[in-house]
Design a protein that fits this description.
Structural class: mainly alpha
Helix content: over 70%
Number of strands: 0
Largest sheet: none
Number of domains: 1
Number of helices: 5
Shape: elongated
Order of helices and strands: HHHHH
Distance between the termini: 28 Å
CATH architecture: Up-down Bundle
CATH topology: Four Helix Bundle (Hemerythrin (Met), subunit A)
């Protein structure tokens, strides 16, 4: 049995059966998260950890809508470490993991929803 990377249950509940709305929200999610990951990757080169923490905050919220618990927790951890604790040890590795795992998620969503142009 294949492991599901996401769950559309919450989104479908909000949509109340409107599949066009669900598809639109998935497209928006893919576009926004792709942009956020690209920003994180460019900021990592300059060790702009606080800016990454702000993006991680947005990502944690976005991941919650699709019940992506692992990435939500990782994003929240990066946010807390960079913005609240100002502890930057290990952040490079965590952001690399966040980018890698999110890229896999985005590829799966694009495949599952046939979003080749996003």
């Amino acid at each position: 049995m294949e492991h599901k990377l996401y769950d559309l249950g919450k989104l479908q509940e909000i949509a109340q059966g409107d599949e066009a709305f669900v598809n639109e929200m998935v497209v928006t999610f893919v576009e926004n998260v792709t942009e956020d990951i690209e920003k994180i990757q460019s900021l990592r080169a300059f060790e702009e950890w606080k800016a990454i923490g702000e993006i991680a905050h947005r990502l944690a919220t976005r991941f919650a809508y699709l019940d992506i618990d692992g990435l939500q927790a990782l994003s929240a951890d990066i946010e807390k470490a960079t913005l609240i604790c100002e502890c930057f040890d290990g952040i490079a590795g965590k952001t690399e993991r966040l980018c890698d795992e999110t890229t896999l998620l985005l590829e799966r969503l694009k495949n599952d929803f046939e979003l080749n142009s996003v």
